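Please produce the structure of this protein holding (2Z)-2-iminopentanedioic acid.
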Amino acid sequence: MYKSEYLNKIMNEVKLKYAEQKEFINAVEEFLDSMEFIVEEDKDIERYGILERLVVPERVFQFRVPWVDDNGKVQVNTGYRIQFNSAIGPYKGGMRFHPSVNLSILKFLAFEQTFKNSLTGLPMGGGKGGADFDPRGKSDGEIMRFCQSFMAELYHFLGPDTDVPAGDLGVGAREVGYMYGMYKKLKHENTGTFTGKGMSFGGSKVRPEATGYGLLYFVDEMLATYKNENFVGKKVIISGLGKVAKYAAVKAKELGAVVVAMSDTTGWISNPEGLNVDFIASLDDKNGKCTKQYLDKYPNTFHGSNPHEIWKVPCDIALPCATQNEINLDDAKQLVKNGCYMVAEGANMPTELEAVHYLEANGVIFAPGKASNAGGVAVSGLEMCQNAMHLSWTYEEVDQKLKDIMKNIFKMSYETASKYGNPQNLSLGANIAGFLKVYDAMKAQGIV
Ligand code: 2IT
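Below is the modeled complex.
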């Protein structure tokens, strides 16, 4: 229950209309918590129906994706693209290929993406898409045929100034290449309507590293501002062994931290003296699960098969970088008990809402993904910019811009949180700061 009747009305409607969309309901609830601080003082939000409109995607595509597997058998998946909000720019957001993909998960991701993209300061609206397709264990040919079929349907609705997809879980450089190839063929244009492309056809330097590096740049600002410290000697846990986690680990080490534990879906590995991050960065999960490959080389590493147990490893800073809902209330209690004082999300919504509340109530400084993992989409925005200008920036130029953007997102979130009386509440700061720009644009553009 909110103090504001307006917020109660919005939340009740969302819960009633989309009762089965748990992830989406959670994301809206978390966001409306922060709106409590501004809806009473600015009645235009209600007058212009801003929140009513914000919680409904502008457009949703759902379509059949038929393809033929290597045995000649016809397979069918469901594809989606959510064009959530275009108030401040073309729809922008990744594609997720994972068996768990459904409307609820993609709506939650696209909703969050709207505010994340706003925080980057670049002109990008919110979108997300994907399919309930599992790329794991598929041959290259199967992946290509799936991507081509997916794009044969979706290409109509994309464009460099309309909707620009990218990668997410299960979608990396290979999948982006196949999708972009088909898009280009069908659309007869080559303007870079995808980010995370290969370097030989318009990709941006630092895009592969951007989410992980950006997370570390963000936490570096947190350490400096709240603790007057830096990463040197800090014990860090990083969950997930995907692209975000690996590059987060690389940058953590570079900044002087000790990465004491990492995990994948099959379990966790830990070494209080620090894992071999360079070896981890070199692992390719095409060769099997990364924890297993690590244990094959370093059999004496502490390990376990339940990924949740990673949160029992004592640390200063925890960086959940796997997927949604990986830190629950019990995990949060473990972290607090062991002295962890900072949690920053590299994945989208990895921390359940009650866990966030517990962490914050116990003095842990928490950074929400829409702020701390915005580095990926920020460099996607820079890729769009380079494509539009038909040029490409150096690694150093892009990395510097990424640093500046992450610094600025932290500053905006921190200053906004401070303005509303709670400088440690970065969720509040990020939600309001991200919202205000979208709100201003929606108000200016009339009821559309
Ligand atoms: O969650 C995210 O921000 C992403 N998957 C990246 C989106 C993008 O367009 O680069």
